[in-house]
Structures are given as C-alpha cells and as structure tokens.
Amino acid sequence: MMRQYELVERVKRYNPATDEALLNRAYVYAMRAHGTQKRASGDPFFAHPLEVAAILTDLRLDDATIVAAVLHDTVEDTAATLEEIGRLFSPEIRALVDGLTKLKRLDLVSKRAVQGENFRKLLLAVAEDVRVLLVKLADRLHNMRTLGFMKPEKRTRIAEETLDIYAPLAGRMGMQELRDELEDLSLQNLKPEVYATLAKRLEAFSETSKSLIKTIEKDLTARLAAQGIPAEVKGRLKKPYSIWSKMERKSVAFEQLSDIVGFRIVVGTTPQCYGALGVVHTSWPTVPGRYKDYISTPKQNDYRSIHTTVIGPKRQRVELQIRTHAMDEIAEYGIAAHALYKEEGEREDGESHPRLATESGAYQWLRRTIELLAEGDSPEEFLEHTKLELFQDQVFCFTPKGRLIALPRGATPIDFAYAVHTDVGNSAVGAKINGRMSPLLHELANGDEVEIARSDGASPPAAWESLVVTGKARAAIRRATRTAVRRQYAGLGRQILDRAFERAGKSFSDEKLRGALPRLARATPDDVFAAVGRGEMFSGDVVKAVYPDFKDNRSAGSPGSAQGGPDGAGRLSRKDQTIRLTFPEGSPERADGGAPDEGIPIRGVAGDLPVSFAPNGGAVPGDRIVGILTPGVGVTIYPIQSTALADFDNEPERWLDVRWDVEAGSNERFPARLMVESINEPGVLAQIAQVIADHDGNIDNVRMTRRTQDFTDIVIDLAVWDLKHLNAIVMELRAKRSVSRAERMNG
Ligand code: MN
C-alpha cells in the first residue's frame, strides 16, 4: 500500500507548491475512516482510494482532485459525513466528494430505463465539476484492474458497462490512454481467450518486428534532423482491444492487419509538424486517402495531429501521427491535460492553450449534453440522446419485441437480421422499419424498430457481402452464398447445356457427361454445370467433349444464325437473353463493357460482380436505377421506369439498391435507346444524325423500319453523358419538322 510520504512525493513531482498538510490530513482521515475494511482481494480497502489518487497524479491533477480521490468512498462506505469533510478540508473538496458519493449510489443494472437514469445522474454530478468525472474514471480504472477478484456475473456486468459507458466517455473526453486500458481490461474479462491469444500474438509480433521498428525510428529521426527538425520518433504496437475491434469490424484475420505498429513523431512547434510531414512524404510514397489533418481541423475532443500512411523502407505500410508535445499531451490526457494549463499562458512552442478546462471542446460537448438533461426528457429518451451522442459511430435499433441491437453506423436491415441470428439473415427477403416497408439496403437510424420478413427457401445474394457493414453479416453471407451461388450456377449451367444439346440435335444425360469428364478436366457433372453457368466453359465445348465428331456451325463463324443473333434480341425471351449475356459468342451489349472492376460506375454492387446495362434501353446518370441480380451474369442495371422490371416482381431477393457513382466532369458515356418517328423524305436520317452530332452524342447503332408509306420508325442506340444530355437531344429532335415523334425507349 502506498505510504503517506509516497503520495506527497508523487504530487510534488509535478506540483512543487502542493499543500502537503492537506494531503496528509486526507490520507490519515481516509485511513481511519476505512479502518479494517477489506476489498474482495483481501487487501485493506484503503489501498483502493490511494490507487485511484495515484492514477490521478499520473494525470497531474490539482490538490483538490487528489484529496477528493483519497476521500471518494468515505461518505458512502464509512461513518464519515459531508459536513465533516467540508469542515476539515474545504467546500470545494466537499462538493467533489458529494458528486462522487452520488455516483457511487448508481449501481447500473441491465434495464434500459435504469441505465438511462444512472447515466443522467452521472452527467449531472459531472456537470457541477468535470473533476468529478476524472475521479470517477480513475475509480473505474482501478476497479477494472482488480476485477479478477469478483464473481463472474459481476465481472461481466461491470466490464460491459465499462465498454458501454466509461471507455467511450474517456474517449470523448480525449483521454486516450485511459480509454485504451479500460477497453483492454474489459476485453480481458469478457473474452479471456480472445484476449490471451491476441496478447500472445502481439508479443510474438513485437519480437519479430523489433529491429524493423528500431530501423524506422532511427531512419526517420535522422532524416528529420537533416532538415533541422528535432523530433522524438516512437513506434508502438496497437492495443489488443483496438486490434480485436478492427478484426471484428472488417472481419479479417490478424495476419491481414497491416497497421499493427503505429509511429508517432513529436516535434516542438506546429510549423515543424508540417515540415516533418514534408520529410515523410518526400522520403516514401504515400498511401492515398490516408492523410488527415486534425491540426487545422481538430476533433471535437480537441485532439490535434496529422495522420498519414506511407509505404516504408521494407515495402510495408507505416502509419504515422505527427504532432507537437502539447498536442501529444492532449491526445493522451485529454480534458485532464487542460487542467494542467489552467495557470499557464503561452508555452515554449508559442501556442496558446485554453486557460480553463471549461473552454475545451470536450467540456463544451459535456455542457451541451447536460443542457439536454435540463430539458427534462424521460430517462429513456435521455439515454437515447446522450448515449447515442456518445457512440457517434453506432446506431441502436430494436426488434419488434424490444431487444436492443447495437450496430455500427451505416448498418442496413441485413446487418440487423444477421445480428439477431444467422438464420434470420440468411432467410431475409424484406424489412419493415418502424412499421413501413423498406429496402433491405436502407441505412438504419437510431431508434429504428426493425422487423425482418423471411422466406424459408431464400439465400442471400452474393452482392450483399460488400453492402453490409458488420463482420458477422459478411462472414455469414460469404458462407451461405458460396453454396447457394454454386447451386444456382449449376442449375443455370444445366439449362444452358440442355438447350445446347437440343440445338445440336444430340441426346444428353448425366451419364453421357460423366464419360466426357476427363476431357473436360472436371471431377463431377455438377462441376461442369457450375463452370458452364459461370461462363468459364462454353456449352459448345461440352457438346464436343461428349460427341467428339460433332461440328458446331456457330463456332465456324456464322453469328447471326438461327437461335441467337444480335438482331434477334427483341424476340428472345428473358431467359434467352440471360444466356446470351453469359456466352462470350453472344454480342456484347456495350462495346466498352470491359472488365468488371473497371466497369460501370455504380455504387451498391460488389466489386467482383459483372455489371451490365438493361439490354433494351440502357440507363444513364440521372435515371433512378435498380440492379437485378442474375446468377452467372451479375448485375443488370435498369432504369426504374423500365417495363422489363415487372418480370422480377416476384423475386424481391434479386433486387439491389444501387446508385450512380459518376464524378462531375467525367468522360464516361452511357447507353440509351431512342425511338424516332419521322416523315418519309430524303435526307431525314442525315438530319437526325446531325442533331445528335451537334449535341456531342455518339450513335452506336441505327435501325430503320418503314412502317407505312409516310412514316419510318428509327431506333437509335446512342451514348450520352447523362439524363440532361439525353433530354436535350430528344427536345431538339422533336423540334425538327421532319420528326413526328421522339421518345426514349425503356426496354
Ligand atoms: Mn471507489
């Protein structure tokens, strides 16, 4: 247990002007008050308030806070009274202990209303003096450090509450170090195996990367010194909890994490931060999209730093944070660091600091939150307001039975369904949000009540995998689609082969196919079906493998023949079109419909799915669009007004919510089809072509059919920038005397 003089020494180290007598009085008072009380560990109880005070000396807090920490459990747990404390110490210390005593009476239980009420009390107590919160957080930290002595249920409840409320609150107050420790301790208690595994891996990682970290530290320091920037460079491993939550969030394995080590460059002044950034960026290539300047735009909790990621000397990703000493202190200690600068003005780095804690951004947030309290919401509403504020990156939704489902921001009803149960996710076909039908890809908002419609035979479309935000949903979809997609491909492949053999006039059975398996280099007929369904193998090759003497006249180069020439598109059934798209020998709908990943700029579609436009009419930016998922084909984009969509009305699981992802000023063109009715007279086609050319439209194809003696119908496939562009062309065509009608066609 910490001795009396040790406590004084600790405070004196950062505050030479400390009131030693006051500290000694508090020590003796609390020691007498707690007497022979013991903690669950068997230690004398008095060790606890001393440890809490010690944590606060690390944050270099003032005498009143340290004394309040020493006394924090006396009023509730001993014969001590507030009056006595006010008399023996000071009204300020009395007020702090009063706040802490009120908090002590909170024993959070799992009921939401009670939790809300407690949280409200917590913030009310803090409202009077933010130092109450600092003592409370230190109190919680010490309790978490000694949680091992508690009964399992109690441990779980306290650890959950710490993760739920105290750790985010510490983060919100900018106290990163405290937050890290609270989170790690919670993980250690909630998931001991996970924690142990991660800790072991981190240790192994730290062993193997020790020399690399040293190399980078030295290299960076030298490069900075060469530019006249004195700097401290330190590499540090991420904490188990932050690694675990990243693995969960992104559903990746430890080995896939590229940012286990982060480097910090601490310099003297703000200009030196940018100087250091220049040195870093001219030394190594940067990783795009990873640069963030929280110096020019500080976070709400006053965090300031420059973040960037580069490809380091050994071709590995290196995450860097660049900041001054003062910024570093705020990043570590947050609102507690502001307390330090109370009496100080400018520091040696020439930067001014908030003179009072009340001026810090974190404290402003706290103030606003507390003002909300004063508006007298019910505890539940309050919890929703505040707890939700606290968890800016989370949304809280409910099942119809009132079960709370916490999800990361951006989550969809699909994520919700998987969070409830994997089976619910796999069979989800629709959702009601707050009683109204809603697309499964709608972004959920706080407080939404979500009801999932299920269909037993349903399986999740593969495209969902990239649309969901939770790791759980992603992993489950991957599992479910792997089997379902294969089954669908195989079904499609079988249909394609049935038809191919029929056209060839040859009989076909699994038995016959089995004989040809060695020639096709596949193990089972199912493998062949799946390969054909996926478009990896051509039906013609299968026919030839089964009937080696068969002559395929289509592959001999007569594309327009009988069954599937490009001009026949309009007469084919939907199935035939589907198949035609699958086969490379069918005419591509767009000349430029290249590789899927550099294909059509549509958001809401998995990167590995091929995307094509509706065969008759296309779609252009400005159109409201939907994607229809077809196994073996990918996603086909239809404008919402397309009549062809009626075909999919009974298959809601194939509908994808998609959006355009086209930058302004992009050169991308999109397919559209026009129907123009014109008067039969010489040169009319040239006139129409001129209008389109004048508007910078590209004509891909023109077909004319003389309808009557007087009129001709002209179908024009063209490529335009967007809907506005298309409409301008249509208007101009209509203005031509020789044009009696001009319409967009929506296949
Ligand atoms: Mn305590």
Folded structure, characterized:
With 747 residues, the protein is an alpha+beta fold. It has six domains: 4-191, Hypothetical protein af1432; 194-357, Beta Polymerase, domain 2, CATH 3.30.460; 363-479, Beta-grasp domain (Ubiquitin-like (UB roll), Roll), CATH 3.10.20.30; 480-553, no CATH class; 554-668, no CATH class; 670-744, Alpha-Beta Plaits, CATH 3.30.70.260. 47% of the residues lie in helices and 15% in strands. The chain is built from 27 helices and 20 strands. The strands form six sheets. It has a five-stranded mixed beta sheet with strand order 1-2-5-4-3. A four-stranded mixed beta sheet has the order 12-14-13-15, with no helix packed on it. Strand 8 (428-433) and strand 9 (436-438) form a beta hairpin. Helix 2 runs parallel beside helix 4, helix 6 runs antiparallel to helix 7 (91-104) and helix 21 packs across helix 23 (525-534). The longest helix has 35 residues, at 192-226. The model is unreliable at 107-113, 340-359 and 554-599 (pLDDT under 50). Residues 673-747 form the ACT domain. It catalyses: GTP + ATP = guanosine 3'-diphosphate 5'-triphosphate + AMP. Residues 552-575, 581-600 are annotated as: Disordered. Residues 393-454 form the TGS domain. One of its GO terms (molecular function) is GTP diphosphokinase activity.
Short description:
By secondary structure, the chain is an alpha+beta fold.
Q: What summary fits the major beta sheet? A: 5 strands, mixed
How many separate domains?
6
The CATH architecture of the largest domain would be: Orthogonal Bundle
**What percent of residues adopt helix (DSSP H or I)?**
40-55%
User: Terminal Cα separation, in Å?
Assistant: 82 Å
As an assembly, this protein is single chain
